[in-house]
Model the fold of this input.
Amino acid sequence: MKWPGFLLPLVDLAGSVIAPLPGSDDAAHQNFRGLSSRAPGTSRPPTNTPRTKLSSAEQTDERSIALDGKRIDYKLVRRRGRRGVGLKVDGTGMTVAASLTTPISAIEDMIGKNGEWVLKKLGEWSHRKITPQRWQTGATIFYLGEPLTLMIDAGASKVKVEQAELQTQTHLFVQIKAALHDPAAIAEQAEVAVVAWLKKQALPHLAQRTFFYSKLHNLTPPRVFLSSANNRWGSCNSRREIRFSWRLMKARPALIDYVVCHELAHLRQMNHSAAFWHEVERMCPDYVALKQELDQNDHRFRAF
Ligand SMILES: [Zn+2]
Done:
């Protein structure tokens, strides 16, 4: 299951038949909601193009274009071997993907052709922009749907993260070694420490919920793994392995349970057919509302 980060109206310039996502015959994912939303008449380009880490194989550029009299800034990412021009819109704005050699006129042409779609999606995203997490004392992170106030203790002799009640608020005390006068190092180390803490809480919680629902619905409990996916909540494969993103721990328990049920339902239906959703409903009767809540809060869960 993907969460609704990316809207990918990926456009294939050649108009050729597009290969399915690698492994899609063998795996089911809860992806970004937006991945299923493409501009009308456009198709997804092959995603199995090998990506090399050579810096010359990828170039990023900030550009802008006028659409309907409005200036729209976008990020152009050129990759060697990329076929077609891809447009995506999310909480960070518009990103356009193209090959290293696609002429800028062809890129602008493609944006222009999808101009109405782009403006509509940018409008939809305007109230759920992803704002990066602030890593300083007083900032908030979400844990199981509840706000935790960060208390950062820089210059400590060791790294330690601890949750504690202080008056009526729940705090997350984060001890890190970064020097007090170095905000960049503080932010970096605080994020590393908090992510490690979230991951440590995630596996027992997710494994327990998976075990609980498996037993309740007569399924052999699958193996549970954590992932760091930034574009999907969970995935399930035919080897009965379920992976959950540790980012799920930011969501309230009922939302986590929906994702657990969704992945467990894939053990019976490795697809998103009506039979699959029927299975989800059996395990999680409120799934429609929960799925919607998860989609609508995606920008909160993806601040880091
Ligand atoms: Zn799914």
